[in-house]
Design a protein that fits this description.
Blueprint: H1 9-13, H2 20-30, E1 36-37, H3 52-61, H4 75-87, E2 98-101, H5 103-115, E3 121-126, H6 131-138, E4 142-149, E5 155-156, H7 158-164, E6 169-175, H8 187-200, E7 203-207, E8 231-237, E9 250-256, H9 262-274, H10 280-291, H11 296-300, H12 305-318, E10 323-324, E11 333-334, E12 337-338, H13 348-359, E13 361-362, E14 364-365, E15 377-380, H14 385-405
Parallel strand pairs: 1-13, 3-4, 3-6, 6-7, 7-8
Antiparallel strand pairs: 2-9, 4-5, 8-9, 10-12, 11-15, 14-15
Helix pairs in contact: 2-13, 3-10, 4-10, 5-6, 5-9, 12-14
Amino acid sequence: MKTIAKSSKLANVCYDIRGPVLDKARQMEEEGQKIIKLNIGNVAAFGLEPPDEIVQDMIRNLPSTAGYTDSKGLFAPRKAVVHYCQEKNIRGVTVDDVYLGNGASELIVMALNALLDTGDEVLLPAPDYPLYTAAVALSGGTPVHYMCDEQSDWMPDIEDIRRKVTPRTKAIVIINPNNPTGALYPESVLREIVEIARQNELIVMADEIYDKTLYDGQTHTSIASLADDVLFLTFNGLSKNYRSCGYRAGWMIVSGEKRHAKDYITGLNMLASMRLCANTPGQLAIQTALGGYQSIKDLVAPGGRLCRQRDLAYELLTQIPGVTVVKPKAALYMFPRLDPKIYPIEDDQQFAYELLAEEKVLIVQGTGFNWTAPDHFRLVFLPNTDDLRDAIGRIERFLAHYRKRHTK
């Protein structure tokens, strides 16, 4: 197999935008080859459709959505987010504290742009969702990764967080439920993170986009509900819980200690105004989504489609020699480990490239999530059970050949 060229640092942290593996996948598709895509949580591509009431509401209101809205968004969906904050026990939130965006991603970048000066540091989990590393770097900051412990169900290493706080640290990011690991953080861990933020005057940025995609009766705690004397930014949206990735409808909530953040909030308001507004049709989906029937509960319940696919993927992967997986408690992903003694992988991007070329299965290498070693990969368990069985069967076949090639 021809060795691929190394990607730039930016391409690595923006794995789903460009890079040799994605370039190869596009080439194969242009040649008419069918690829099984386990690389991205694009739920609609797997037949998981948004609730019909959201679709119908957008259709009915579309004729009146041609104009700009308030830079923070329409009043009604922002008020719906305030009510959602009350359900999540996030106190003191008003409509003025809610910003609507073209997905949570836009708001994450906006929040970091407004915060960071050159050299400022942000604590990020490893593995992370690579948007954060890219956004910190592009905002002039320095991403500093704290470790999550696979042996403890991928919980943040609290002592590692403490060691990595410096006078330049401005914020800590938590992704809960977690992408890429599927971890769900208990209240005890969240309270320890709040205490670190309190002691060091850090902003807590909480990505909670999967807060309803929970399995086995698990419940989610919003970290912003645990304190009033720390500044929190909470990100959420319709992409995952409501299977509406393409609608680009997300929100950011500013809560907690806002008295000493007036300049920062002014910066957020300026950046919100500079992009004029979020797309109006997407905004109109938010109120209906939050107030309607929560069909995600059916999908994650025992016997529900997402639960069945998670269980099947876990069962099939853990039957492969040298593969271990922490079973996800939430979200749509698994982050399997390949035993280095059995799979001596030196370049996991090359590994993903070869898997794609040989078996037409597209995954993301673990280092694409700023993991420190080439011994993990991420896959989504969104395909239906037949396709999932086929895909993991191909991975198993590829790994069997890999073991044979590398057995001395």
